[in-house]
Write a structure and sequence with these properties.
CATH topology of the largest domain: OB fold (Dihydrolipoamide Acetyltransferase, E2P)
Number of domains: 2
Radius of gyration: 19 Å
Distance between the termini: 33 Å
Shape: elongated
Number of strands: 9
Largest sheet: 6 strands, antiparallel
Structural class: mainly beta
CATH architecture of the largest domain: Beta Barrel
Length: 140
C-alpha cells in the first residue's frame, strides 16, 4: 500500500511491477471524509429541474456557536431525494441568510433560497476543513 494525498494505492502481493503499464493488480482507492452539515439554503436546478433542488448551501457552527458557510453540494441526489428536499425546505424558507458571517461566498453560485438552519445532512468529501469534491449521502 502506498498513501497519497487523496487515497491509497494497493497491489496484489503476487503481482510484479511492469514499468509504464497499468494492470488490474494495482488499485487506487480514494479516501473520503464524512461530515455532517446544516442546510442553510438551496439553489434551484436548471432546465426541467428549475423547481427542484440543484444544490444545497451548507453551514456548520464554529466554536463560538456562529454559523459559518461550509460550501455547496450538488451531486449524490436521486430525483426522488431532490423532490423530498424541495418539499421539506419549502416550509423552512426565510428572507435572509442565517450565516453568521459574510454570506456573499454562498451567493456567488446564483440565487440562493435561504432556509432556517434545522435540517442536518451528511456529505462525503476530500480534505478536512472544507468541502472538496462533495457528494450528498442519502441516509435512507
Amino acid at each position: 500500500m502506498t498513501a497519497c494525498a487523496q487515497g491509497a494505492v494497493f497491489k496484489k502481493v503476487s503481482s510484479i511491477y511492469l514499468p509504464g503499464q497499468r494492470t488490474r493488480s494495482w488499485r487506487k482507492v480514494l479516501l473520503r471524509n464524512r461530515s455532517s452539515a446544516v442546510i442553510v439554503g438551496w439553489i434551484p436546478g436548471g432546465g426541467r429541474e428549475r423547481n427542484l433542488v440543484g444544490a444545497l448551501v451548507l453551514g456548520a457552527y464554529d466554536d463560538d456557536h456562529v454559523l459559518q458557510y461550509m460550501g455547496t453540494v450538488g451531486t449524490g441526489f436521486t430525483a426522488a431525494v431532490r423532490r423530498q428536499l424541495r418539499e421539506k425546505l419549502a416550509s423552512l424558507e426565510r428572507r435572509s441568510s442565517p450565516i453568521g458571517t459574510d454570506p456573499a461566498a454562498a451567493e456567488e453560485f446564483g440565487a440562493v433560497r435561504w432556509v432556517e438552519p434545522v435540517v442536518v445532512v451528511d456529505v462525503a468529501h476530500h480534505q478536512h476543513g472544507g468541502l472538496r469534491h462533495p457528494s450528498f449521502l442519502n441516509k435512507s
